[in-house]
Amino acid sequence: MGRTVLYGSVSLDGFIADEDDQPGPLFDWLLNGDVPLDDGGVLKVSRESYDYVRPYWDEIGVTIVGRHVFDTTDGWEGTPPAGVEHVVVVTHRGRPEGWFPEAPFSFVDGIEAAMRAAQELAGDRVVEVAAGDVGGQALAAGLIDEVRMEVAPVVLGSGKRYFGSVRGPQLLEGPEEVIQGDGVLHLRYRVRR
């Protein structure tokens, strides 16, 4: 079984989006370099960011997201992001009727069921859990091995929290890695067991 990683871009004050669900400049680092990060060359980052992020993205077998992220992105029109093979959506509602029936998306109720489905699909590859409410639920349930943060140089002041509504302390070890990119600080922590 592969490791489980809570992942996302975040402001200095711990938010993944503002009150209106807009990320603002959190993803600017994905466009301010000269090294193509994705196959289409749309995302261009610094060499330091590429050397850190690309190997990680290549390890991801499955991404877990909440229904809110799915709805906000329209499920990336049936194509999982960043070359991921499968997306598991945590939701009380199933696949939208008529929505890309062949798309490699599973819809499950609850974070534990989502993690079981994702780990079965991913095998020994990484299961990535999107930051926010679902990521916080997975961390609180003891289902996360590692936390990766792409810290952008911005203070949003309020909005959607990186760890969702986690209550109580969650202990991490490290940081295991601290990489400075152009307009981003890449951090990686292990979750203390």
TrEMBL record:
Pfam family, one: RibD_C
Residue span, Bacterial bifunctional deaminase-reductase C-terminal domain: 10-166
Gene Ontology terms describing biological process: riboflavin biosynthetic process
Any one GO molecular function term: 5-amino-6-(5-phosphoribosylamino)uracil reductase activity
InterPro entries: DHFR-like_dom_sf (IPR024072), RibDG_C (IPR002734)
Identification of the protein by name: Dihydrofolate reductase
Lineage: Bacteria, Bacillati, Actinomycetota, Actinomycetes, Micrococcales
